[in-house]
Specification:
Helices cover 30% and strands 24% of the residues. It is an alpha/beta fold. The longest helix is centred in the first third of the chain and has 17 residues, at 46-62. Bound molecules: ligand 4UU. Ligand 4UU is lined by residues 182, 227-228, 232, 297-300, 319-324, 328-329, 332, 345, 408-410, 422, 425, 431, 436.
Length: 528
């Protein structure tokens, strides 16, 4: 059976995400504070932000950037990210967001795969972004360093030319707004094609459940380069005329100080931050009384942890569920339903349908009369679901059904009230502190080591990080290698969150007759 949303259908206007966010700003709203730089407290009003967006769009157009071009944006959560993001879209181009943590190799791969013609980065990231851009064949004049650096144009250079924002025309229903990278259900990271309409839809769909409004001061520590931060923080909060407090990196005392000093009302986190909020002694030293709710997403949050955070902060704890391929939100615990089990992912957002399918029999799972249903794979359909993977028809057709349902690769159960619980993951993806770690990438890297004959990487449950990558390694005959050497070899080549954190040597990697790694056997072996 197909389940539909308790919110029913809302109308999704056919406009760009930039118009959805900045359209219809009233005089009073223009004077409100849109952005606060968390570390310094510096403020940007809606009028100033809109002016910056238009000036950046003008500067980009003067450099020949427009509809059909892809621009890479590689920066932490700073106010300039927001202006640059909408400036690129307002110029008619598409943004491929690059995680601040990316290595030079990661960045080069994403630039090449997405066909980016320009890179916007920041000076602290130049040690990676400089070589990354060079490896991808981007000339120095195709790299803009937002805060300025010797030998590069800055954001001020780009926006200061006095160029008016261009007239651009595109269809928001088909024009790509962003191409974030996600490994999906299998393999290496792939470009996820999300249109303006996908993003507009997800902002409008999510807020009836999340309930942000203009009085809110929203803490933005989750990266804008990840779809959770991009949609729920950057776009949703600004569309509701809230104030967004940007925090460039997570550091617990600084994070708590900013919540206290900025009196933030809404705090969006991933489970490892929830663990810190529940357990770390220093939390008690800060006044967090302005917080009205904490919403956790990006990895599993269990109900006892959710309760511990709620009790300690005397606040509401919500959970959301999403996936890059869904722009990302499909489920949230609604703010006005404190009765719902905090360990569930809540209800379907508006205009969204789901099916739960038994992975052995293919049978549809319905709502039970009592208790919880059998587990099955979650499939989602709605206007937030991606168009497909960039230049990858095979991965697209393996993920999207012809009728529009997307395979999430997550195993869920539904209870008699219709609440959904994520109980397992079918896909190979590992979530380290909510960050994606694609095993295929680590396996390919391990295989480049001369002493390694074969390798497989799976998730090892971990209290603080949720999951950590564990490598199973088969050595070449007569070769010798220690676990520490394997860890060090991987660490040299990948971003910190992708490091292998456990190693086990085995004789042979279990594989199916078609050659697929039997990850469940390895995970099972691990548990036993
Ligand atoms: C168990 O993580 C995300 C998006 C997260 C998000 C966004 C808006 C959460 C709440 C919200 O309001 O995207 P990806 O693509 O990085 O990772 C997707 C995968 C899911 O398929 C699932 O395996 O991350 C896992 N995941 C979760 N698992 C995401 N949220 C949850 C959750 N519980 N609440």
């Amino acid at each position: 059976m197909t389940f539909s949303s308790p919110y029913g259908e809302i109308e999704i206007p056919n406009i760009s995400i930039t118009d959805a966010v900045f359209g219809g700003l009233t005089e009073a709203e223009l004077g409100r504070v849109a952005l606060v730089d968390g570390p310094s407290g510096a403020e940007t009003t809606y009028a100033e932000l809109r002016g910056q967006v238009l000036a950046i769009a003008g500067g980009l157009a003067a450099r020949g950037i427009g509809v059909g071009d892809v621009v890479a944006l590689h920066a932490p959560n700073v106010p300039a990210f927001v202006a640059a993001f909408h400036g690129i879209l307002r110029a008619g181009a598409t943004v491929t967001p690059v995680a601040a943590l990316s290595t030079a190799e990661d960045l080069a791969r994403q630039l090449q795969d997405s066909g980016a013609v320009l890179l916007l980065t920041v000076s602290p990231l130049l040690p990676n972004s400089g070589p990354g851009a060079e490896a991808a064949g981007l000339a120095k004049d195709r790299v803009i360093v937002l805060d300025g650096a010797e030998g590069y144009a800055s954001l001020r250079d780009l926006a200061g030319g006095g160029h008016a924002a261009p007239e651009v025309s595109f269809d928001p229903a088909t024009q790509l707004a962003v191409i974030p990278y996600s490994s999906g259900t299998t393999g290496r990271p792939k470009g996820v094609m999300l249109t303006h309409r996908n993003l507009v839809a997800n902002v409008l769909q999510s807020n009836p459940a999340i309930g942000l409004d203009a009085h809110d001061r929203v803490l933005a520590v989750l990266p804008f380069t990840h779809i959770y931060g991009l949609t729920v923080l950057l776009n949703l909060a600004l569309r509701e005329r809230a104030t967004l407090v940007t925090v460039p990196k997570f550091d617990l005392p600084e994070f708590l100080r900013i919540i206290q000093d900025q009196r933030t009302t809404a705090v969006f986190v991933a489970p490892p931050i929830a663990v810190a909020l529940a357990k770390h002694p220093i939390v008690a030293q800060y006044d967090l009384s302005a917080v009205e709710f904490v919403l956790s997403g990006a990895a599993a949050l269990d109900s006892s942890l959710a309760k511990a955070v709620g009790d300690r902060l005397e606040t509401l704890v919500l959970q959301g569920y999403g996936m890059t391929e869904m722009s990302p939100v499909s489920h949230v615990i609604p703010r006005d339903r404190p009765d719902i089990d905090r360990g569930s992912i809540g209800a379907l957002v508006a205009n969204t349908e789901m099916r739960i399918v038994d992975i052995e029999t293919g049978e549809e799972i319905g709502r039970p009369e009592a208790g919880r249903s059998l587990p099955g794979e979650l499939l989602i359909r709605g206007p937030q679901v991606m168009v497909g993977y960039l230049n990858n028809a095979e991965a697209t057709s393996a993920t999207l059904e012809p009728d529009g349902f997307l395979h999430t690769g997550d195993i869920v159960e539904i209870d008699a009230d219709g609440q959904v619980f994520v109980v397992d993951r079918l896909k190979e993806l590992i979530k380290y502190k909510g960050y994606q770690v694609p095993p295929a990438e680590l396996e390919a890297l391990l295989l480049t080591h001369p002493a390694i004959a074969d390798a497989a990487v799976v998730a090892l449950p971990h209290e603080e990080a949720g999951e950590v990558p564990k490598a199973f390694v088969v050595l070449q005959e007569n070769a010798s290698l220690t676990a520490e050497e394997v860890v060090a070899f991987v660490a040299e080549h990948v971003a910190a969150h992708k490091k292998v954190r456990a190693v086990e040597f085995i004789d042979v990697i279990p594989k199916s007759s078609s050659g697929k790694i039997l990850r469940k056997d390895l995970r099972g072996r691990d548990a036993g």
